[in-house]
Specification:
Blueprint lengths: L1 H16 L5 H15 L4 E5 L2 E10 L4 E7 L2 E6 L14 H9 L3
Antiparallel strand pairs: 1-2, 2-3, 3-4
Organism: Dactylosporangium salmoneum
Protein name: Calcium binding protein
Amino acid sequence: MAAKRNATLKAMIEEATVDAYGDDEELTGLFTMLEDHLAVPFITTVFDVEVTVRKIDLTDDTIVAICSRGRERQRIDLLDLPLPTPPPDGAVWIDAYRYWAGR
């Protein structure tokens, strides 16, 4: 089961990074797929606090979730973001990003 899932994630990463040269371009390719496929907004819980993930953003070296609670806004590294159950549509791209990043 894990081998099949890993093969699926590897195929997704290949699709996202097919024309990429280097980690920066691969990160951009994965961000593009996340932007295209991840259903936002969605609600999740971070440190026992319910937040709304409004969008994702690309920084110099990672992808972050822009989370809000009321008027407060916080960037959380997508690698560290806990996902709700059930996860939002397109969350498999977060799994692919985490696999690519070695997590």
